[in-house]
Design goal:
6-stranded antiparallel β-sheet, 5 helices, globular
């Protein structure tokens, strides 16, 4: 697999981020490690690009799914958990783990992170139903704190309205309780709608 090395690098960087947050080493040793990291950063930047990864590595067949740079599902993005979604008819779901780097209130997930993940999962729910689109609106309701750790997100198409898909979804804690719910509106870009019509017209 050509990307094996990159995927390993991303996994190690995620582990580094988590370890950096939780370490209790003394300040002197932390400074020494920071200098070692700076050397590695310089080495990585010897060959780099300013182009977004979603442009450089588009995902065939799923135009709004970015498997590389996306902040939620990106396999090359170390700040992504990542959230690996499963598509089903007019719905999708994902099970994932949020650790120390996603904390808001002590021991709980930051509300903005919950919104970020729901926006992604609801958008993929729209795409799974055949309506890939950009977010036009997102309403979030917080029911209870979302604990750090293993979680599940679900999304399902609510209704279609022309180029718009209305999707409902939520995040569940380990006990199966809804912690955050959301309603999103996703608008299919005209060029995708035209491509979809052409595909159906030609069988």
């Amino acid at each position: 697999m050509p990307e094996t090395g990159y995927l390993a690098l991303t996994a190690s960087t995620r582990a580094l981020i988590d370890a950096q947050l939780r370490t209790r080493i003394d300040s002197g040793e932390a400074l020494e490690i920071a200098r070692e990291i700076d050397i590695l950063v310089k080495r990585l930047l010897e060959s780099s690009s300013t182009e977004p990864l979603g442009v450089a590595f588009p995902h065939p067949g799923r135009p709004l799914r970015n498997d590389h740079g996306n902040a939620v599902v990106g396999v090359r993005n170390a700040i992504a958990p990542p959230v690996a979604t499963v598509w089903e008819r007019e719905r999708c779901w994902a099970e994932f783990t949020l650790g120390a780097s996603y904390e808001g209130p002590p021991g709980y997930v930051h509300g903005g992170v919950c919104a970020l993940i729901l926006d992604q999962v609801l958008g993929e729910g729209a795409a799974a139903a055949g309506y890939p689109g950009m977010t036009a609106g997102l309403t979030i309701r917080f029911h209870r704190p979302t604990p750090l750790g293993r979680l599940r997100a679900e999304a399902e198409l609510h209704e279609r309205d022309g180029r718009k898909a209305h999707v409902n979804g939520h995040i569940l804690d380990p006990d199966g309780r809804v912690t955050v719910s959301a309603h999103g509106v996703y608008v299919m870009p005209r060029h995708l709608q035209e491509s979809d019509r052409a595909r159906h017209a030609h069988g």
